[in-house]
Amino acid sequence: MHRIDRIYIDGAFVTPHGDERFDLFNPATEAVIGHVRLADAVDADLAVAAARRAFPAFSRTSPQMRVDMLRRMHEAVRAREDDLLEAIVEEYGAPASRARWMARHASEVLRDAAAVLENYPFTRRVGTSEVVMQPIGVAGLITPWNNDAGFITGKLAAALAAGCTAVVKPSEMSGLQTQVVTEALHAADVPRGVFNIVTGRGDTVGAALVAHPDVAKLSFTGSTAVGKGILRTAAESLKRTTLELGGKSPVIVLDDADLTQAATLALQAGFMNSGQACIAGTRILVPQARLKAFEASLVSAMADVRAGDPRDAATTIGPMVSEKQWQRVQRYIRVGIAEGARLIAGGEGRPAGIGAGWFVRPTVFSDVTNDMTIAREEIFGPVLSILTYRDEADAISIANDTPYGLQAYVVSADPARAREVAGRIDAGRVLVNTVAHDPAAPFGGFKQSGLGREYGTYGIEAFLETKAVLGVA
Ligand code: NAD
């Protein structure tokens, strides 16, 4: 049984003032595997105070000092990769291959930020002036459970690269990962107070950071509903705010696409991270005339999709993170059926032969129209919709007919044509014939998928204010 009863403030592991005990579960078995003692608003205040004390000196460190520090942080998290993988599988249920990617990603974001920082021009000449990029201040970083270790290190990497100090509020459901990451970063010899990690509930610790007068910058990843509330509160003090929110990403299969390749890509895009991915390609758009052939390709590609024990190497889809999430996904499957969509794979309940654990049957609906609930709302589970379009203009119109705009996928035999279609999609990222992430490219949403960008130069600039100094030679 794990017992996590320390948070990290001012360079030390301390007992929180908060005393709520939160159960951690193994979602593959539904067993309680440990407890986390949650921080409260008093702890949030102490963490902000530590970050504030550290800011004047840290914000004046040289970029080279911070490059070296980020490289030490990278090494330290990399050294704990196996422990991190174990934590991700145990408390989140990611299939082992995905969990390995997540554990590696958590260290790589630190190395990537160091590389960007090494060449970043903090000072430039514009007109007759000097333009200086200046760290904003104390950053509040709020992260969700679906890739928590990577969100913690990714947001910290950008904030610290810029010269900000930070307080991280991870999801209360990620206690094990947070513990491994915090121990690793503690070993990296970072000046005290520069980063603080305070696990607690969103409506206590999260809300305290959002309202805190000494927090100058917020970076939040999570649901669109919570993001809107954060933006409202942040407006009171005009905190600079980055929001990475939900998505309902289209996968546009153009009429020249190889259908076997398209079906494989659509399943990879849709079922990534067990469907618990903001960037999941959940609306598959296929030409009307090719629907039957595409359905056949997709059903045959489903043979490689396995929901089950995350420790089994053949598993591609693990359990949902919680019973609440499992219930949510089940409800959407029922809604899809009730609204007249046609199941071509999966359905309600657990996969055959699985008696416990929050496992969902990998589900694909066809005959979906873009006004159906399952085409409009983010499900956050392995439930995909196939929609048809008449021609390219219709495909683009359906793709853009969504409140979201985080990511889109285009599949075509003709990269130039796919590139042209990509240019007409309203989304922060459009992936042509690939599902691969590019850590140098900006990431973030159009419309209700968010505000601002993360990763690369764009990610660091989200933690910088632009200052012009006029009258200097
Ligand atoms: P959530 O919005 O409930 O919680 C996210 C984080 O915010 C958690 O740490 C939570 O404790 C905190 N929080 C909750 N209420 C808060 C409040 N009032 N004030 C401050 N903080 C608060 O989301 P979740 O259920 O943890 O994660 C799933 C959602 O996250 C999905 O909608 C998904 O699309 C989104 N997501 C987006 C991205 C992205 O980069 N765009 C990535 C992953 C997940």
Q: How would you describe the overall organization of this protein?
A:
By secondary structure, this protein is of the alpha/beta class. It is built from 15 helices and 21 strands. It folds into 2 domains: 265 residues, Aldehyde Dehydrogenase, Chain A, domain 1 (3-Layer(aba) Sandwich), CATH 3.40.605; 184 residues, Aldehyde Dehydrogenase, Chain A, domain 2. The site of nicotinamide-adenine-dinucleotide has 28 residues, from helix 7 and helix 8. InterPro entries: Ald_DH/histidinol_DH, Ald_DH_C, Ald_DH_CS_CYS, Ald_DH_CS_GLU, Ald_DH_N, Aldehyde_DH_dom. This is aldehyde dehydrogenase (NAD(+)). It is an enzyme of class 1 (oxidoreductase).
Tally of discrete structural domains: 2
Largest sheet: 7 strands, mixed
Instruction: Give the ligands present.
Output: nicotinamide-adenine-dinucleotide
Alpha carbon gyration radius: 22 Å
The multimeric state of the shown protein is single chain
Q: Would you give the CATH topology of the largest domain?
A: Aldehyde Dehydrogenase, Chain A, domain 1
Rounded mean pLDDT is 98
Strand order of the largest sheet: 15-16-17-14-13-18-19
CATH architecture of the largest domain: 3-Layer(aba) Sandwich
The helix/strand class is alpha/beta
Distance between the termini: 64 Å
> How many E strands?
21
**Strand percentage:** 15-25%
By CATH reckoning, the class of the largest domain would read: Alpha Beta
Low-confidence stretches: none
CATH H-level name of the largest domain... which superfamily? Aldehyde Dehydrogenase, Chain A, domain 1
